[in-house]
Amino acid sequence: MRPGSKVYATRIAFAITAGLLSALINPMTLNVGRHGVVAAMVPVLIAALLYAASYYFARSVIRVSPSSLNDPSYMYKGGAFTYVVVWIVTWSLAATLCFPSLLQQ
């Protein structure tokens, strides 16, 4: 597998994980009171942290160096749009399956 494909596959795997975690740690089911806006940012924070973790995972565990890619900046921004789309779709599906009562509100 080429280094760029490894980075891309890592981002997709981390996006699926972020979507599942965002659905399981659902701030809307907690009693958050006045802090609803802050609690609603929890899934976004999870996704951002796992995006950063995917960079370090690809660099340290899979050992993909930016110099091995055609464009070294691909290590940072490669697969970012796909990451966001996969995260939102996974989050939506998992939240619907985990909390079907949210549909009735």
Overall description:
This protein is mostly helical and 105 residues long. The chain starts with a helix and ends in a 7-residue tail after the last helix. It has helices at 3-24, 36-40, 42-61, 74-77, 80-98. The model has no long low-confidence stretch (mean pLDDT 83). The protein has one domain (3-100).
Q: Features of this protein?
A:
105 residues, mainly alpha, 5 helices
Strand content: under 5%
The residue fraction in helices comes out at: 55-70%
Structural class: mainly alpha
Shape: elongated
Q: Which series of helices and strands comes N to C? A: HHHHH
> What value does the Rg take, in angstroms?
16 Å
Low-confidence stretches: none
| Total of helices | 5
Give the strand tally.
0
Distance between the termini: 46 Å
Give the overall pLDDT as a whole number: 83
Main beta sheet? none
Summarize the structure.
By secondary structure, the chain is mostly helical.
Please give the structural blueprint.
Blueprint: H1 3-24, H2 36-40, H3 42-61, H4 74-77, H5 80-98
